[in-house]
Each structure stands twice: as structure tokens, then as C-alpha cells.
Amino acid sequence: MPVNVRGRHFLKLLDYSPAEIRYLLDLAKEFKRMKRNGVPHRYLENKNIVLLFEKTSTRTRCSFEVAGNDLGLGVTYLDPGSSQMGKKESIADTARVLGRMYDGIEYRGFDQEIVETLAKYAGVPVWNGLTDQFHPTQMLADLLTIEEKFGSFKDLKFTYMGDARNNTGNSLMVACAKMGIDFTVCAPKELFPSAELVETAKAVAAENHSTIHLTEDVAEGTKDANIIYTDIWVSMGEPDDVWETRIKLLKPYQVNAAAMKNAAPNAVFMHCLPSFHDTKTTIGAEIAEKFGITEMEVTDEVFESPQSVVFDEAENRMHTIKAVIYATLC
Questions:
Q1: Is the pLDDT of residue 62 over 80?
Q2: pTM here?
């Protein structure tokens, strides 16, 4: 039966079947081919979308804007100071107003409940550009990158190192479960995903002939992994006073040469970016001065190595987001 997601929201991968995810990935591949070959694909002219950003981003904003422009869409960007949502106007009322003016709404911000409320009242497709709990557009880019590097998802071992409770850790566990990739959380127990989500992911993984494993042991967690993935140790919106505790907890889980050597010979390194792999950022320099650590979740050696595919991931955000927009609006 042909896959059709027209009119659907894109809030988390738990809402999508493996076949639907497969459809979006194949569509993204086609859009990537067309983009690289200069083939016009302005299929959605005379439609308009709005981007609601309560958290800033380089990749998410640029991906949605370029994808929208390539498809012929009008694109409006609203930063945190350009909307009354949640201040003078409720989220539900904002959704109903924007849904009368736009054909689709993207939200990037805080609690998952906000994007779910937008979806409930908008009357048009709503896309999750990131919440505190889930990051589904990043997952499609990651899956596309993995498939490009390995040819398929079959018999792959994926290890996530770091704060596995954050939106990226949660979403990667679900994405791997959906697509039949063996997934390992390698983190201190305090930073494991919620027990409820782990059980949900295990049930999904079992349906797709893969496994979910949690360990505090770095040697065990990275052994023969095909993909090693990490994220920043303190997420946007968290208070600065968690840095000291988080560094102490996660320093043993830094992705370094030893971790990559323990992985499979064909292993790749992945990161959703931005990354603190040196002191060439304001925050990186501040943390180095305050705590004496010049590389955080990944060493510069690994980040700049041939095994690193982080910029392939970044580019693939554009192609996969284009697929989501087109599939849900066309």
C-alpha cells in the first residue's frame, strides 16, 4: 500500500511507522539528487509556512528556509521577540491564528507539550524543529547520513555517549528502534533516558529485530560500534550552574581516540552540532578558563578526523526537512 502522510504533523518519530520513515528518507535522497544537479523543484508555489523559534539555531533555521525557498514556499521567521505566543496570547490562540494564514507551522523551543498544543489547534501540519524531549528532524538527517555511509541499516551497532536524557538521546533511541539498528546508551546512570521511554523503545526495537542496551562502561559501550554519537553536555536553556556537575559526570564519556579505536574498523563519528571540541567559541573559552577543560564531549582530533561525518549530517538536515515539508503539504 503506498505511503501517504499528507496533512500529518511531524512531532516525534514514535508517531511514524518504519515504512513512513523509509518513505521520507527516500524522498530526501531524491531531493538531494535534484539539488546537487540543479534540477528545479518548486512544487509548492503559492503556499506559505511560518517558523516559530523560541530557541535559536543555525542548522534548523537555515534548513527550513532553504528547503522552503527551493520548494517555492513563502517563509516567515518569528524569533522569540516577534510573537506574542505564551505572553499576550495563548498557544492555542496563536495556533488558530497562524493556521488561518499559513499552510504549515514549524516550532523550535521548549516543552513537547507546546508543539503538541500547536498541532491540536492549528488545522495545518505542524513540524517539531526541536523540543526538550524530541528532535525528529535531526533524526531523519542522521538516518540518511548513516545509510549513505553504510548502504543500509542492517547489522549496525550504534552507541550514544553523554547525556542520554536529552532530546537527541531520546530521539536516537527511538530512531534506531524504528529502523532496526542495535542501540547502546553509554552514560552514567543518572543520565540514562527515562525508564518509560526505554521500555517503549525496547518494544519497538523487538518488532524490528534490534536491541536497546544501557551501560556505564565505556569499553563495553564502544566495543565494535559502527556509529559513535555524542552531543553537548549542557543543553540550551539549562542553567549555567549545571556545568561543573555535568563535566565531572561526563568527562569519562568524552569521545576520544581510544573510544574510536575500540569501535569497529569502519566506525564513523556523529554529532548534531554545535560542538565544543576546542576553545574557538565564547562558551568553549569560558569553560576552559573556569574548569580547565579545552575539549568537552569530543576531542578535536576525532572531530576533525576522516571518521567524522558531522558536516554530512548538517547538510542532510536541509534535504530531510524538505522531504517532511513536501510530504505533509503536497
A1: yes
A2: 0.97
